[in-house]
Prior knowledge:
single chain; mainly alpha; two-stranded parallel ribbon; 31 helices; 2 strands; about 60% helix; globular; disordered C terminus; TPR-like_helical_dom_sf
Amino acid sequence: xxxxxxxxxxxxxxxxxxxxxxxxxxxxxxxxxxxxxxxxxxxxxxxxxxxxxxxxxxxxxxxxxxxxxxxxxxxxxxxxxxxxxxxxxxxxxxxxxxxxxxxxxxxxxxxxxxxxxxxxxxxxxxxxxxxxxxxxxxxxxxxxxxxxxxxxxxxxxxxxxxxxxxxxxxxxxxxxxxxxxxxxxxxxxxxxxxxxxxxxxxxxxxxxxxxxxxxxxxxxxxxxxxxxxxxxxxxxxxxxxxxxxxxxxxxxxxxxxxxxxxxxxxxxxxxxxxxxxxxxxxxxxxxxxxxxxxxxxxxxxxxxxxxxxxxxxxxxxxxxxxxxxxxxxxxxxxxxxxxxxxxxxxxxxxxxxxxxxxxxxxxxxxxxxxxxxxxxxxxxxxxxxxxxxxxxxxxxxxxxxxxxxxxxxxxxxxxxxxxxxxxxxxxxxxxxxxxxxxxxxxxxxxxxxxxxxxxxxxxxxxxxxxxxxxxxxxxxxxxxxxxxxxxxxxxxxxxxxxxxxxxxxxxxxxxxxxxxxxxxxxxxxxxxxxxxxxxxxxxxxxxxxxxxxxxxxxxxxxxxxxxxxxxxxxxxxxxxxxxxxxxxxxxxxxxxxxxxxxxxxxxx
Length: 604
């Protein structure tokens, strides 16, 4: 369905339609009536003109043909003509299609849909099918702002169950619609009546959903368990029971139901998705989500779209969003941004990532920053010998500016959050056209915040978040650079490893996230990425024994998002992520662990 149509006001469309009718130009009249209905579907004048077209040969249907990418106004006009021609069920099919296209528009708010006699003119099976189509075309539940547009369908349901009181399928479909529209008591009543007329598995499911929406959880579980008794092989109901139990903090019972489903079919998609989500919810081990991502990749033909992976990653550091920056420069930056006052000179007593220092300098031009030299390794020296340097020792960029075209292109995709790492990888393919010099330039010369709603939010909340977002997406773009090169000898791998071991900076985190993302989507690189993450984490711990490491907490979260990390390294990562770096005097157990890891990586 397509919105393509000249953007004329409805009144002007009708004026042109009347003129075309006077001249006998029915096709142009039909086009303008469709244009008016698309903007004002309940406008009486549009329906009056449409009624005039209904008097021509064929009831005017030929004037509103259904083609590929058909205009929504054409669909709605044809629906009304079908009803006028004695085919209301076919007309309702088209109105429901329009509802699916634009759910908040009152396409069905017309007299013939809510007329009591319509229910008598349509077979109850057909009405039930139409109501289920409405449910499939809308969200569950429907937001309050969208309920009014769907009320005519609920009126149709009321009229239908009044006329056809012995039809269980109709009661169940009506219950499902009522529940979506917030009529929970009515949904329970209709589902219960349907079961009294004819017990069935689907009837118990509808009743269970209605009870669940009403907050009657024990009744909901009882109904869903009766549904299982009707059909023990419908594993989707097992997943529904598990989800309901989990929503009420009964994880052990939920997982018991999932295990029962998986015992019947270990590959059943709903059960697999739910199982991994609930296991992650129980213990927080990212291995469950990685296994789920692997399952999704290996089973692209799943029966329907699932959101378990995205729900589990939402709000989780690096799994679904960037972690906030930390350190004294960021604290000063936020003070400036919130309207606070800093002196002409700001003294910082701990290391400052070059990206943070550059962001602060741009936010407060003229501010003099004095950084005290402290103990420990020089924060402006790479942690290992590298080929690609992003920063000079004085904290200034060592690479040139990106091209304006590259900056504009990247700004279209930058966001501080993503559904999950594989989704971020897929989205970053749009950056595959950028060359290496531009991608590196974007890391040290981020473009300005775009004048969009997202840009305003980022700018108002925390300017460091925009810079970090740019760096993350530039590194994700590096994953798609010259993908024809084998990974072990590829430019993308070499450059990302250089960034990981370069100057201690926000770009270190961004590059490490890109490698972690590569491990999510390609099991073949997991052993190497796990080793790199463990080495980088151990190095940060070693440095943290003598001075602070502003990116340490974030590195801990990155490690916790890494596939196939060993338990000792995961324990170390959890310590850092919780903000408990082992300095200056680490506990004996953690100290022994650190020495073991350091010895291992020095030998490798």
